[in-house]
Amino acid sequence: MTSLVCQSLDVSIGGKPICNKLNLELAAGQFWALLGPNGIGKTTLLKCMAGLLEPDSGSVLLENQAMDKLPRRTIARLLGMLQQHTVYIFDASVLETAMTGRHPHLGYWEREGPQDRQKALDAIRAVDLEGFESRSVTRLSGGEARRLAFASLIVQEPAILLLDEPTNHLDMKHQIRIMDHVAHQVTSEHRSALIALHDVNLAARYCSHVLMLFGNGDWQAGPVNEQLVLANLERLYQCPVECVQTSTGQRFLPGS
Amino acid sequence: MLMSAGSIFLASASGSVSLGWSEWLASILDSSGQHGELIWRLRLPRAMAAWVVGSMLALSGCLMQVLLRNPLADPYVLGVSGGAAFATLLGMVFGVAVAFLPWLAIIGALISILLVFGLARGTGPWSGTRLLLTGVVTASGWAALISLILSLTPDNSLRGMLFWLMGDLSYATLPWWSLAVLAGSFILTLGLARSLNVLAMGETTARLLGESTRHMLWLVYLLASILTATAVSIAGSIGFVGLIVPHLMRILVGSDHRILIPSATLFGGLFLVLSDTIARTLMSPQQLPVGVITALLGVPLFLLLLNRARLKGV
User: Fold this and answer.
1) How far does Cα A222 stand from its chain's mean position?
2) How far apart are the first and last CA of chain A?
């Protein structure tokens, strides 16, 4: 099983520490939430875990190999990341764009086969973009573009999924749909996911583990039922939080 | 969708060969029916040169647009042609023989490529913005030097210079190595086509999909620059082909570079052969600069197609 391991990872942005000596293992079957206030460095940490940025010290291991020693192509077959922003500049169809997820799996002169095409069509259906296959990506709404980017990620079939606020721009139905899909990938396909979120309740409902960034390099990580408690959330967001009991477990609201 | 794109490509490909060919034949029959020698030694090389230059510019334009992720980029935006033009005009001022001018153009273009490459490279990661700024500023530097030369030149040699600046195929010869440059870059680009699709979606996306983008982007820059340098050395800086042909083809066949690259390359050749034929015959015996014709043909054609595409809601 593919795993992603952070070993005493120091990451900072503009001299401001994001995490000090972060030790973390994303094991197969685990669904992690990454929580923290705006501007705390969630995106930077995710980019670092994807090997897009160098950490100050420490290392990220992918299948027990140092990330910076692996070729991008090998990484791309094992690890995929949904970026926070999706901007399409050049015209391409929705189907073509979803199919780009096959890129790391294809050889130099190879073309996408019928199976690749089927994977792309399935993913498009999964994100509710059926009927948009030949539409230009430059004519999609913000939410549609977001779902298409998620579809490309599914088509890439990585064992490790990093998602940077996948639910922003999405309505409630599609938020649930995306989260359901990630949860399905994690449990049925034995993958692992780390998902940066602002919605604590989505984390409470779906995730098995949570990593919290408090600023100044302080962090805390562990199973969701141990970590997602009032004291931690109030420290995290610097505001009073209230907890309510629902039929599906605890939910959190801003308190007064 | 793919099938229709494929068939459009086929149509444009066969169109380019047969149409370019018949147009070329007709122009021969019109102006110089009995002069077989003249045709083979003047017209055919000129048409071939036009075709190769047009293809190179269109291919280079495709590459530059991906490289800078900017649909407005053209082969000249990073100053390659500026360097070539400066060196050539300098040669004209000092009365260098016409046969050596292409070599001066190549040298000027190479100096410009290395200058921009060296300055934009820096130590940090790839930055498209830095490359664009370095290139654009270098290009304006060359433009200033060119204006300086033009303003200091006596009137009688000014005309030749202006023709060269607008792009002129009258003295064009086709060195064998330029064919090799075109064929080599074309095959290489076609092999990279799927990577170019990914690269057009942004550098980070491309890295996440398994491209080592830094190497890839420098390769694209060098390929595009060498194509431009070769084209400019043959025919001066012919405008518009490199900007408009890739866009026309994007409208017609879509943005998949596996189809876009061959169709743009073929159509670029066809387009310049047609333009040059018109430039030669429209006001014959007077010859017009081909750059003027490419713009006069290209602007309405482009606007028409753009408008059609919008109406269809593509």
Assistant:
1) 17
2) 45
Domain boundaries, chain B: 2-309
Q: Residue type at A128?
A: D
**Does residue A136 belong to the interface with chain B, where contact is any CB pair within 8 Å?**
yes
pLDDT digit string (tens) for A171-186?
999 999 999 999 999 9
Cα nearest neighbour of B213 on chain A: A72
CATH classification of the domain holding A184: 3.40.50.300
A160-164 vs A192-196, strand pairing mode: parallel
Angle separating helix axes A142-156 and A114-126, nearest 10 degrees: 140
Model pTM score: 0.85
B280 or A141, greater pLDDT = A141
Per the structure, the count of domains in chain A is 1
Per-residue pLDDT band for B121 (boundaries 50, 70, 90) equals confident
- The CA distance from B160 to B168, in Å, is 9
In DSSP notation, B132-190 reads: HHHHHHHHHHHHHHHHHHHHHS-HHHHHHHHHHHH---TT----HHHHHHHHHHHHHHH
Q: Does the structure show a pLDDT above 60 at B19?
A: no
Nearest to A208 by CA among A26, A45, A80: A26
Contacting residues of A for B258, CB less than 8 Å apart: 111
Range of the domain at A190: 4-254
Cα angle for residues B289, B290, B292 (degrees, 5° grid): 75
Q: Name every residue whose Cβ is closer than 8 Å to that of residue B226 and which is 6 or more positions away in sequence.
A: B113, B181, B185
Neighbours of A70 (CB within 10 A): 17
pLDDT greater at residue B274 or residue B309: B274
Instruction: Choose from A70, A75, A81, A90 for mutation: most chain B CBs within 10 A.
Output: A90
Measured in whole angstroms, the distance separating CA B157 from the mean position of its chain's CA atoms is 26
pLDDT for the residue numbered A31: 96
| Residue B84 C-alpha, separation from nearest chain A C-alpha, in angstroms | 30
Q: Which of B123, B188, B208, B213 to mutate to test the interface with A (most CBs of A within 10 A)?
A: B208
Query: B200–A90: do the CB atoms touch at under 8 Å?
Result: yes
Residues 6+ apart with CB under 8 A from B258: A111, B190, B193, B194, B197
**A84 in the Ramachandran plot: left (φ > 0), alpha (ψ -120 to 50) or beta?**
alpha
- Note the pLDDT tens digit of each residue in B135-183: 899 999 999 999 999 988 887 778 878 888 888 777 777 778 889 999 9
What's the whole-number mean pLDDT along residues A108-133?
92
ipTM: 0.90
Q: How far is A206 from chain B (nearest CA, A)?
A: 25
Average pLDDT over residues B197-226: 89
| Architecture in CATH for domain B2-309 | Orthogonal Bundle (1.10)
